[in-house]
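Researcher: Next entry in the queue.
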Amino acid sequence: MNDGARVLQWAQQNGYTLTWLAGKLGYSRQRLSVALHRNDMSLALCKALFEQFHVRITPFRKVRWERDGKRKKPVGERGRTPGAGRGARQSKLDPHDEAIAGRLAEGASYREIAKLYGTTPSNVHDWLKKRGLK
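Model: Structure for this entry, 134 residues:
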């Protein structure tokens, strides 16, 4: 029997519902249920169980493997980290900013500017908005 099943069995024997248990631990019922049924026992969950109920559980996180043998992160740790993008890149309109500002002053439309520099009117609009020229 895994640790998640042991916690569920302990709760049932003591007459605790999963909702009540989740409330005491500071978890949502769904998150606690998924963690216990999948035996995805994080260190934080183990500490909370011990501090609240003196139930000692060993932290265990399932490691999933993909076909190529690389380790797959647990569900809560997937995705890109903040700031992991390539950063701000130079636009094709940047070298022509003075000319574009002059054309706007003359009354040129976004469509005319876009056609002149080989881009879309929405790109011209976004570019102007980012630089505060609009």
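Model: The chain has seven helices and two strands.
Researcher: Noted, moving on.
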